[in-house]
Amino acid sequence: MADIRWYVVHTYSGYENKVKTNIEQTVINRQLEERIREVRVPVEDVIEVKNGVRKKISRKIYPGYVLVNMEMDDDTWYVVRNTRGVTGFVGPGSKPVPLTEEEVDKYLGTKETLEAVNTEFKEGDLITVVSGAWENTEGVIKKIDTKKQTVTINVDMFGRETPVEINFSDVKVVK
Q1: Whole-number Å distance between alpha carbons of 51 and 168
Q2: Which of 97, 101, 108, 127 is the most buried if burial means most Cβ atoms within 10 Å?
Q3: Hey, what CATH class is 4-117 in?
Q4: Residues 10-45: pLDDT tens digits?
Q5: Segments of the chain assigned to CATH 3.30.70.940
Protein backbone atom coordinates (compact mmCIF):
# COMPACT_ATOMS: atom_id res chain seq x y z
CA MET A 1 0.00 0.00 0.00
CA ALA A 2 1.36 3.38 -1.00
CA ASP A 3 2.08 6.06 1.58
CA ILE A 4 -0.52 8.75 0.80
CA ARG A 5 0.12 11.92 2.84
CA TRP A 6 -0.88 15.59 2.75
CA TYR A 7 1.68 18.08 1.43
CA VAL A 8 1.59 21.87 1.24
CA VAL A 9 2.35 23.55 -2.08
CA HIS A 10 3.28 27.23 -2.30
CA THR A 11 1.65 29.16 -5.17
CA TYR A 12 1.54 32.67 -6.50
CA SER A 13 -1.01 34.57 -4.43
CA GLY A 14 -4.38 34.61 -6.17
CA TYR A 15 -3.57 31.51 -8.26
CA GLU A 16 -4.68 28.91 -5.69
CA ASN A 17 -7.88 27.83 -7.49
CA LYS A 18 -6.15 27.84 -10.89
CA VAL A 19 -3.33 25.65 -9.51
CA LYS A 20 -5.93 23.28 -8.01
CA THR A 21 -7.73 22.99 -11.35
CA ASN A 22 -4.47 22.50 -13.29
CA ILE A 23 -3.22 19.75 -10.95
CA GLU A 24 -6.58 17.95 -11.09
CA GLN A 25 -6.60 18.10 -14.91
CA THR A 26 -3.02 16.81 -15.14
CA VAL A 27 -3.87 13.94 -12.76
CA ILE A 28 -6.74 12.90 -15.06
CA ASN A 29 -4.64 13.29 -18.24
CA ARG A 30 -1.74 11.22 -16.86
CA GLN A 31 -4.00 8.73 -15.04
CA LEU A 32 -2.46 9.43 -11.63
CA GLU A 33 -5.75 9.23 -9.67
CA GLU A 34 -4.37 6.48 -7.42
CA ARG A 35 -1.26 8.49 -6.51
CA ILE A 36 -2.59 12.06 -6.31
CA ARG A 37 -5.92 11.68 -4.53
CA GLU A 38 -7.11 15.17 -3.66
CA VAL A 39 -6.22 18.84 -4.04
CA ARG A 40 -7.71 21.44 -1.69
CA VAL A 41 -7.75 25.19 -1.23
CA PRO A 42 -8.93 25.62 2.39
CA VAL A 43 -11.68 28.26 2.67
CA GLU A 44 -13.91 29.52 5.46
CA ASP A 45 -17.33 31.09 5.34
CA VAL A 46 -17.28 34.63 6.67
CA ILE A 47 -20.12 37.05 7.29
CA GLU A 48 -19.13 40.47 6.01
CA VAL A 49 -21.06 43.57 7.07
CA LYS A 50 -20.91 46.61 4.78
CA ASN A 51 -23.29 49.55 5.07
CA GLY A 52 -25.45 47.52 7.44
CA VAL A 53 -25.89 44.68 4.91
CA ARG A 54 -24.76 41.19 5.95
CA LYS A 55 -23.32 39.00 3.22
CA LYS A 56 -21.84 35.50 3.46
CA ILE A 57 -18.60 35.06 1.50
CA SER A 58 -15.93 32.35 1.19
CA ARG A 59 -12.41 33.46 2.02
CA LYS A 60 -9.15 31.55 1.55
CA ILE A 61 -7.73 30.60 4.94
CA TYR A 62 -4.14 30.30 3.67
CA PRO A 63 -3.62 32.59 0.66
CA GLY A 64 -0.75 31.38 -1.49
CA TYR A 65 -1.03 27.73 -0.41
CA VAL A 66 -2.71 24.58 -1.74
CA LEU A 67 -2.87 21.21 0.04
CA VAL A 68 -2.31 18.01 -1.94
CA ASN A 69 -3.06 14.47 -0.73
CA MET A 70 -0.59 12.32 -2.63
CA GLU A 71 1.98 9.56 -2.73
CA MET A 72 5.36 11.30 -2.96
CA ASP A 73 7.57 9.89 -5.69
CA ASP A 74 9.56 11.38 -8.58
CA ASP A 75 6.58 11.37 -11.00
CA THR A 76 4.05 12.97 -8.65
CA TRP A 77 6.61 15.48 -7.37
CA TYR A 78 7.37 16.47 -10.97
CA VAL A 79 3.69 16.83 -11.92
CA VAL A 80 2.84 19.06 -8.96
CA ARG A 81 6.10 21.04 -8.92
CA ASN A 82 5.88 21.87 -12.63
CA THR A 83 2.25 23.00 -12.58
CA ARG A 84 1.87 26.61 -13.73
CA GLY A 85 1.56 28.89 -10.70
CA VAL A 86 3.37 26.54 -8.28
CA THR A 87 6.55 27.95 -6.74
CA GLY A 88 7.42 24.83 -4.76
CA PHE A 89 6.62 22.47 -1.92
CA VAL A 90 6.83 23.58 1.69
CA GLY A 91 9.89 22.00 3.25
CA PRO A 92 13.67 22.44 3.44
CA GLY A 93 15.27 22.85 0.03
CA SER A 94 13.43 20.75 -2.53
CA LYS A 95 12.42 18.06 -0.03
CA PRO A 96 8.65 18.22 0.70
CA VAL A 97 7.64 17.55 4.30
CA PRO A 98 4.26 15.83 4.87
CA LEU A 99 1.79 17.27 7.37
CA THR A 100 1.27 15.53 10.70
CA GLU A 101 -2.21 14.26 11.66
CA GLU A 102 -2.64 17.23 14.02
CA GLU A 103 -1.74 19.67 11.23
CA VAL A 104 -4.17 17.96 8.84
CA ASP A 105 -6.98 18.36 11.40
CA LYS A 106 -6.04 21.99 11.95
CA TYR A 107 -5.51 23.06 8.32
CA LEU A 108 -8.32 21.12 6.68
CA GLY A 109 -10.88 21.95 9.34
CA THR A 110 -12.01 18.41 10.05
CA LYS A 111 -13.14 19.78 13.39
CA GLU A 112 -16.19 22.05 13.38
CA THR A 113 -15.25 25.54 12.20
CA LEU A 114 -16.92 28.60 13.70
CA GLU A 115 -18.15 31.35 11.41
CA ALA A 116 -15.95 34.41 11.53
CA VAL A 117 -17.30 37.91 11.12
CA ASN A 118 -15.57 40.55 9.07
CA THR A 119 -16.79 44.09 9.63
CA GLU A 120 -16.12 47.34 7.84
CA PHE A 121 -15.58 49.21 11.12
CA LYS A 122 -13.09 49.18 13.99
CA GLU A 123 -12.80 50.56 17.50
CA GLY A 124 -12.59 54.35 17.47
CA ASP A 125 -14.72 54.77 14.31
CA LEU A 126 -17.59 57.28 14.36
CA ILE A 127 -20.85 55.54 13.48
CA THR A 128 -24.50 56.46 12.99
CA VAL A 129 -27.30 54.19 14.15
CA VAL A 130 -29.58 53.65 11.14
CA SER A 131 -32.45 51.75 12.80
CA GLY A 132 -33.83 50.72 16.14
CA ALA A 133 -34.38 52.64 19.38
CA TRP A 134 -31.20 54.69 18.95
CA GLU A 135 -31.87 55.67 15.30
CA ASN A 136 -29.94 58.79 14.14
CA THR A 137 -27.65 58.63 17.20
CA GLU A 138 -23.95 59.08 16.53
CA GLY A 139 -21.22 57.57 18.65
CA VAL A 140 -17.65 56.33 18.73
CA ILE A 141 -17.18 52.55 18.79
CA LYS A 142 -15.72 51.55 22.15
CA LYS A 143 -15.95 47.77 21.73
CA ILE A 144 -16.76 45.22 18.99
CA ASP A 145 -18.20 41.81 19.91
CA THR A 146 -18.04 39.57 16.84
CA LYS A 147 -19.72 36.62 18.59
CA LYS A 148 -22.81 38.65 19.49
CA GLN A 149 -22.36 40.79 16.36
CA THR A 150 -22.70 44.04 18.27
CA VAL A 151 -20.78 47.27 18.77
CA THR A 152 -20.75 49.26 21.99
CA ILE A 153 -20.98 53.05 21.87
CA ASN A 154 -21.49 55.61 24.61
CA VAL A 155 -24.70 57.67 24.46
CA ASP A 156 -25.78 60.61 26.61
CA MET A 157 -28.58 59.47 28.97
CA PHE A 158 -29.75 61.74 31.77
CA GLY A 159 -26.56 63.77 31.51
CA ARG A 160 -24.28 60.72 31.79
CA GLU A 161 -22.28 58.72 29.27
CA THR A 162 -23.87 55.26 29.14
CA PRO A 163 -22.58 52.28 27.12
CA VAL A 164 -25.14 50.81 24.67
CA GLU A 165 -24.83 47.66 22.52
CA ILE A 166 -26.12 47.93 18.96
CA ASN A 167 -26.34 45.20 16.27
CA PHE A 168 -23.94 45.37 13.32
CA SER A 169 -26.86 45.60 10.92
CA ASP A 170 -28.17 48.73 12.67
CA VAL A 171 -25.04 50.88 12.27
CA LYS A 172 -23.20 52.66 9.47
CA VAL A 173 -19.72 54.22 9.55
CA VAL A 174 -19.72 58.00 9.13
CA LYS A 175 -17.37 58.85 6.27
Answers
A1: 9
A2: 127
A3: alpha beta
A4: 999 899 999 999 999 999 999 999 999 999 998 887
A5: 4-117
